[in-house]
Amino acid sequence: MKTLKTGSEEEGARSETNESAAKEAPEGAPAVNANDPKMPLFDAKVPDFEHLNIEPLFTDAVDFETFTKSDFRAVKVLECEAVPKSKKLLKFVLDDGTDEKRVILSGIHEFYEPEQLIGKTCIAITNLPPRKMMGIDSCGMLISAVHKEGDEERLHLLMVDPAIPAGAKLY
Which residues contact 88 (CB under 8 A, 6 or more apart)? Predict the structure, then answer.
């Protein structure tokens, strides 16, 4: 079981622990179950900054009018499942603040299991044209941060405060 150490006993944080997590946590900090849906989903491991590799910034400028055409919205993950016959794709059914559920496919299964993501609040670009993948229309793109540590790629799906309502626009 993956565990995180956070909070303090006065704050009422409690969960299951394991021997390896106990070695990583500050003394006196309670263990927190990383799969608890009330806890933020992140890897508590500090990156190896000596071997960190981040893509260079783009040098081509994008004019402000073009940038403002991208519709970034907070979305709530209602359902998430692996796409049959695909090793990479997850199918997300999302609440985007409208009356219709939005489906977005994302190639992040290597980094997340579907059940970890249900109930999370993420960020999506919602006005991309539909793109068919594995016979399913994907209507948008979820935003992730990607970097390499040595030769190993790391990906973190951008998840935000659950108090942000579905459909909230990002500026």
Answer: 107, 108, 109, 110
Q: Which residue, 138, 139, 142, 98, is CA-closest to 120? A: 142
CATH number of the domain enclosing 147: 2.40.50.140
Total domain count, the chain: 2
Out of 48-57, 144-153, 154-163, pick the least confident: 48-57
Read off the pTM. 0.71
Beta bridge partners of 125: 72, 141
In which order are the strands placed within the sheet that holds 52-53?
Answer: 52-53, 144-149, 152-157
Q: Are residues 110 and 150 in the same domain?
A: yes
